[in-house]
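name: query_chain
kind: protein
chains: 1
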Amino acid sequence: MKNRTTGRSAFLALLKDEGITHLFGNPGTTELPIMHALKDHPDLTYVMAMQESLVVAIADGFSRASGRLVACNVHVAPGLGNAMGSLYNAQFTGTPMILTAGQQEQGHGLMEPLLYGPLVRMAEPLVKWAVEVTRLEDLPRIVRRAAKVATTPPTGPVFISLPGDILNAEAGIELGRSTRVDARVRPSTEALQALAQRILKAQRPVIITGDEIVKSDALQAAADFAAAIGAPVHQQSAPYGAHFLSEHPCYMGALSRAQKQVRELLAPHDLLIVLGADPLRMSVHSETEPLPETTAVAMIGLRDWEMGKNF
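structure:
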């Protein structure tokens, strides 16, 4: 028999079952149902910040420090707008995050109430998936899917709009169970053999590492690899943190975002090995290409978008 519950309580129960221990937020009127429900979920720690950009930034930092899925809740359209800068950062770093915002009751938006806006359309450019809950019965399916989408490589934030009438509604619903997508893959034997031959033939290889090394708990493996082939290592030009063991003798520091300087640094090397990185992201336009024509590239990583780039 399905348990009868409110949308607000079901939402918090679903978050906890997905491994969420802290809910970061800045509540307004449309988030009051969630605040009311927190008293029934004392094992979920609520962390309040005074502005929405800080809410998302704190959640982002918590995820990056813990390696876990995080959840944060902000207030309607201006609140989501305030959060966009930090949401951009979370997208850039691939932070597995469920971001929610309270929305005015369905139908009430037709009256254009104060602070109303199309939340899904606002969030879409910066998240892997954006959706609004339109039936309480769909809430478990949406939260479960959001957790899977956020945690499946390439990881990143997702957005759920929560109308007030959904949070306050009550129905008999089945919460389901948490599942994850195992996205680990192994390249073909032919590709691995070809890569090994390229590395063995290289006279002066150089390595660039990125955030995927940290996400994959591969810092020591990357260090062992660099030592085995005797290659200097640089962090990607726009590092999100420490992407290589800084005390390791192969470590040479982060690349700059000056094209001419990077080109001069890479020029002596015949093979650039990219390990889980966005290697050559620059800031200011330059006519100088950062990658010398004589330097070949071999990329290993989780994001086909990065490997699909043509340098």
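note: The longest helix spans residues 76-93.
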